[in-house]
Amino acid sequence: MKVAVIQTDPVFGEASANIQRALTQLHTVKADLYVLPELFNTGYNFIDEHEVGTLAEDSSGFTFQALQKFTRENSCYIVYGFAEKADKLYNSSALVGPSGLIGLYRKVHLYYRETLFFAPGNLGFPVFDLPFGTIGMMICFDWMFPESARALALNGAQLIAHPSNLVMPYCPDAMVTRCLENRVFAATANRVGEEDRGGIKLKYIGKSEIVSPRGEILQRLNEADTGIATADIDLTTASNKQINEYNDLFGGRRTDQYVQ
Length: 260
Known about the structure:
This protein is of the alpha/beta class. 22% of the residues lie in helices and 30% in strands. The protein has a single domain (2-257), classed as Carbon-nitrogen hydrolase (Nitrilase/N-carbamoyl-D-aminoacid amidohydrolase), CATH 3.60.110.10. The strands form three sheets. The chain has a six-stranded mixed β-sheet. Strands 6-7-8-9-12-13 form a six-stranded mixed β-sheet, covered by helices on one side. A two-stranded antiparallel ribbon has the order 10-11. A hairpin with a 2-residue loop joins strand 4 (89-97) and strand 5 (100-106). Helix 1 runs parallel beside helix 3 (62-74) and helix 5 (146-154) runs parallel beside helix 6.
């Protein structure tokens, strides 16, 4: 299958225009699975919870309708990040395909001022079956916690779709370790540009990437420009956790010795 990560530069609050710009990017390349950044439609640097509420939508809202139409017309799947309005406000990602909404994830590990606006995720780390393999989702700062990728891998994920708005420099290289220690693929879709709002200035680092189960950086974009990176991959290779004839990555875990 072909996976694509889309590196965007959204304008804060201009959801309709941001969605259309992302769709224009998607139309330039044919892929089976596209991964868009965290909060790709609204921007990230919210001033207060009220502002989040005005830009949030439910999982069947305007953003879903626009992207689901694309998946239906192009027989593909998309993972995208958005501000979800449900019983509370969540920093969420959705997996959508030709038949509609396939899966939802709510960010478990909130970063920085997100803790002021969003409720912590409460759906765990689910995994979803697609025609070409099993897909799990995590969002941005989840990378800092090894348990995120490990939970997805233990649940059967062959590829981790990772919508992000990265501002710290560490994640692109750290995802090499996350893939290696779990023998999974990862597709990290980040954004570029800056947001200076409410006295808080954030600069996003780009470097969207696709990494293999052996820790190989198959594709990585630069720090400044929007763009698309694609890779043709075989997800079945992520099911082999055998390191050598004596060591199995998951079979060798010593859970009785780990601190809980």
